[in-house]
Amino acid sequence: MAVRLDEMDRKILFQMQEDASQSLDEIARKVGSSKTPVWNRIRKMKDLGVIGRQTVLLDAEALGLEACFFVLIRTSEHEADWQRRFLATLRARPEVLEAHRLAGDIDYILKVRVKNARAYDLFYQALISEVKIYNVTALLSMEEIKSTTILPV
């Protein structure tokens, strides 16, 4: 169920998404409020689950992780045990940044960030050694055109 947010909540969330390292004073000034009401709203949104964990975004290329692959997976296995093993395998692999179960011809799509094609092959070999997969297609991203964590609130 969606949480009701007013305009002030949305302004606060926008500021936090832009730069969560801002002080409460900075956020309050930018949204036209004072520190205590902003702090109360942030606490309430955390309690409601609107605000999850706060983290730092790293530059993958600066860290040598230059290759981004989108991996399309089809499986002929749909039993609970297979799915449990598959999901555990994905969660244990730090290269997997995102994993989605899909409707349609493809069962899953993964976003995998690695150093290069050789590193992707090592990931692929490990994946298929742990779980049976019917078909895997890897698509190399040639250019990242847009990437954001900012939700349109």
UniProtKB/TrEMBL annotation:
Coiled-coil residues: none
GO BP of this protein: response to amino acid
Domain HTH asnC-type: residue ranges: 5-66
Superkingdom of origin organism: Bacteria
One of the record's GO molecular function terms: sequence-specific DNA binding
Cellular component terms per the entry's GO annotation: cytosol
Record InterPro entries: AsnC-type_HTH_dom, Dimeric_a/b-barrel, Tscrpt_reg_AsnC-like, Tscrpt_reg_AsnC/Lrp_C, Tscrpt_reg_HTH_AsnC-type_CS, WH-like_DNA-bd_sf, WH_DNA-bd_sf
Alphabetical list of Pfam families matching this protein: AsnC_trans_reg (PF01037), HTH_AsnC-type (PF13404)
Keyword Transmembrane helix: no
Keywords, comma-separated and alphabetical: DNA-binding, Transcription, Transcription regulation
Name the record gives this protein: Transcriptional regulator, AsnC/Lrp family
